[in-house]
Amino acid sequence: MDHITEILIQLFAILVAAKIGNEIFRRLGQPTVVGEILGGVIAGPAVFGVYEVNAETELFAEIGVVLLLFQVGLETRLHELLRVGRTALMVGILGVALPFAGGFAAAELAGGDLTLAIFLAAALTATSVGITSNVLRDLGALTSRGGRIILGAAVIDDVLAIMILSVASGVAAGSFEVVNILSLLVVAILFIGVVVIGGTRILRRRRSILTDPEFAETPFLPGMIVMLGLAALASLIGLAAIIGAFLAGMVVGESSERHALESEVAPVAAFFTPFFFGFIGAQVDIAGLANFDALMLLIGITALAVATKFVGAFIGAIGQGRARAALVGWGMVPRGEVGIVVAGLGLSTGAIEGEIYSVVVGMAIITTLIVPPFLPALVRRATTNSEMEEAAAAGPTPGVEDDDDGVRNVDDEPESGPS
Amino acid sequence: MDHITEILIQLFAILVAAKIGNEIFRRLGQPTVVGEILGGVIAGPAVFGVYEVNAETELFAEIGVVLLLFQVGLETRLHELLRVGRTALMVGILGVALPFAGGFAAAELAGGDLTLAIFLAAALTATSVGITSNVLRDLGALTSRGGRIILGAAVIDDVLAIMILSVASGVAAGSFEVVNILSLLVVAILFIGVVVIGGTRILRRRRSILTDPEFAETPFLPGMIVMLGLAALASLIGLAAIIGAFLAGMVVGESSERHALESEVAPVAAFFTPFFFGFIGAQVDIAGLANFDALMLLIGITALAVATKFVGAFIGAIGQGRARAALVGWGMVPRGEVGIVVAGLGLSTGAIEGEIYSVVVGMAIITTLIVPPFLPALVRRATTNSEMEEAAAAGPTPGVEDDDDGVRNVDDEPESGPS
């Protein structure tokens, strides 16, 4: 059998497994994304081994999550994101600081060396926004304030994560320089700033390349080019490719052709995203977790990962009221493919060993699987409360109870437009 | 730079190059597909080397042509294809026999050994229907009688090609058995028959999995699953994956959800096909052709490839009138990726050497580039003639000249429905 045939069979198998998982979970009234991941577990190396994790299936998974975040970006307006900027910054910082501190302390207490402690801590910090934003889209809650805080915090989270990873890699390689870390920070912030401000201005002011009917009948291919270009560029400077894709979506979404683009991107994303969810499932290493110690370690680390991320992000968003803070905290919990990538990096540099690797990957998958089932209820609670708040903010009208007035006015951020 | 980053950059580069080539050729009023291939030449290894030919870019190219043929299949109705079945069979057989005989004779006259002669002959036979069907779609001529003959002949062509390739590989490996060739033929015909007749019946009779609203909101993902599955299966039994994809499209196209599916598949195909055209361009090996002998050989083999395929297919379709036969003959000329695959197989088995390989690949690309510019005029001529014929067939009405009546009735195939 030649290579292309093999890959075609594997892609077929992933799609079928994801589709079956999706259908079963839809009929059970559960989040379909969990079904798709479990489909990946069953068809993947852990059970039937119909497909393997190789360069091609990984690429399809990566393009899948890149498209997912591009879609999310398309639906996100910059000025709405900036409105929740302060809260997102707090959520991002605290949501990184607590897991890092927790992971580091746990590793040190268990007697691990410094490199292991830093890598474990880094793996605990990295949020993967793909799963949460997928579920929020399905719930129509992506543009709610809670959704926007999560997206903004994910960008900050990722900037901090590359700095931590850079520290971790530097320590592992025995060469650690503060200058490198700072220059990384500057490059990351410059990238985000230039893309968002520059890109948005260009697309808002002139009709530009995207909407020039002389250049393209539809904005689809230019949009895909911007997406791949910024994803590659983000990846090149050390950020996650999905952050570049998210920014690309947000910038392109400022164009007047947004809706045409959205409807053309939808099938492409629908084709690719099952590969992403299936791929996460394929990483499950049941053999590596088949002893009591590893299982206990998995439970402990997963509990630590959930608790620290939730509490950190919750505190960061508490100014938005408890219901919304709970949604934000829970939405930041999945580590997904980002946690898996960090674990892989730790394994390849020798900082962590096979068993710890399996445990960290298991943690990344469990944190991803447990989040979606609870999101609908959290979104409902956050929405109900926020609607009451907004009605109240519009002025105390007769018939609207105004029971949390003082708190609301102090904590809400100013609803000013973009600068 | 990690591997995924590298691949993202390469995919970005191919899309940009293809898009620029497409735009330039569109403004020049030339077939855009030629521009996309030339974009691939310039960005690829032959000139700038922004991207390379690797497993990932090859996979994207393969999925691109698979989607292209799936789309073509969606627009092709089985009973219309069967109406031109006899002509397509003749075109397929003669369009394979002449190039094979020509290639074999030329190699023998030049003093090559038997293995070389068979491989060269095999490389000359294989038509790639991707390019022609893409141009015919743009011209709206895919469902014209000429278009249907080309599609039907391409299926027959591919069945014959796998038998020839199997003979060639057998001779190269020193083990050649008639039983193997015959069993290949039986499997290929069984595959095509079962898929087309079985699949069509299932989809026509019951609403089935594709259109069951309980199973899927849209037929898109089930359609993609059928496409990948049949492409993989075709590839597994030795047929080209694109033949499986074409059959999948034709079968799925019988469902009542055809139009919904077409509009969802269109952006996915638009995303992938530039990788296919760019990939063909990337195969150009200028260094391997940089001497006088190689160039002369290239010109000679290309002329032989064009002449034998055109004449064979033309004779096969002559019963349909000269204008249509010319369209069919010219439309079968591109060797495209199929010729490149055969050459690669010959190289890996040691049957052909580096220089001949470069020449055969060059022939495959040139035959692909020269076809599109002349198709619009050939389509116009074939359409005008056929409209006149059909008007005449409807009965001699006043004002319609009836100058080729006798010929038409003898040569036209019966317009009966499917059995």
Rg over CA atoms of chain A = 21 Å
Number of domains of chain A: 1
Largest interface: A-B, 42 and 42 residues
Number of strands of chain A: 0
What is the subunit organization of this protein?
A: homodimer
Q: Give the low-confidence spans of chain A.
A: 396-419
Task: Note the total helix count of chain A.
Answer: 18
Biggest sheet features of chain A: none
Written account of the structure:
2 copies of one chain form a homodimer. With 419 residues, the first copy, chain A, is an all-alpha fold. Chain A has one domain (60-383): Na+/H+ antiporter like fold. Chain A contains 18 helices and no strands. The relative contact order of chain A is 0.16. The A-B interface holds A 1-5, 7-9, 11-12, 15-16, 19, 23, 55-56, 58-59, 62, 66, 215-216, 220-222, 224-225, 228-229, 231-232, 235-236, 241, 264-268, 270-271, 274 and B 1-5, 7-9, 11-12, 15-16, 19, 23, 55-56, 58-59, 62, 66, 215-216, 220-222, 224-225, 228-229, 231-232, 235-236, 241, 264-268, 270-271, 274.
